[in-house]
Amino acid sequence: MLLAEKVEDLIKKQGLNVKLVVVDSLTAHFRAEFIGRGTLADRQQKLNRHLHVLAKLADRYNFCVYVTNQVMAKPDMFFGDPTQAIGGHIVAHSSTFRVYLRKGKKGTRVAKLIDSPNQPEGEAGFYVDESGIKDVE
């Protein structure tokens, strides 16, 4: 959270032209710091504040914020994909686009658009090699 707030200093004081901020494993730090259901409200409030700080900075300085998140297994689910994103409604409603990445067949990956303000749900297959990202034909 402190590093996200330092982005503004990098832009203002050092004059950096920031266009992308990546937050890897957004909810991992919140899950490690707050243990048990008794601290759920505090965790949700801090996570919400962190996401709002990132969104305000992105809007003010015109850069993109890309966050990765964790998933958990839902053992009670019998049909479909048993994984569910961590972070609940706080993360879901704070995100403009939500993309679920998973392994595909024969070393490929699949990017599934879960939520978007102007695009329908859909999937695209791809793979990564030495020359970059390639579409699956």
Could you characterize what this model shows?
By secondary structure, this protein is of the alpha+beta class. The chain has 2 domains: 2-95, P-loop containing nucleotide triphosphate hydrolases (Rossmann fold, 3-Layer(aba) Sandwich); 97-137, no CATH class. The chain is 34% helix and 28% strand. It has helices spanning 2-12, 28-33, 40-61, 88-94, and strands spanning 20-23, 64-67, 71-73, 83-85, 98-103, 109-115, 122-129, 132-135. The chain has a 4-stranded antiparallel beta sheet, with no helix packed on it. It has a two-stranded parallel ribbon with strand order 1-2. A hairpin with a 2-residue loop joins β7 and β8 (132-135). α1 runs parallel beside α3 (40-61). The chain starts with a helix and ends with a strand. The mean pLDDT is 87. One of its GO terms (molecular function) is ATP-dependent DNA damage sensor activity. One of its GO terms (biological process) is DNA repair.
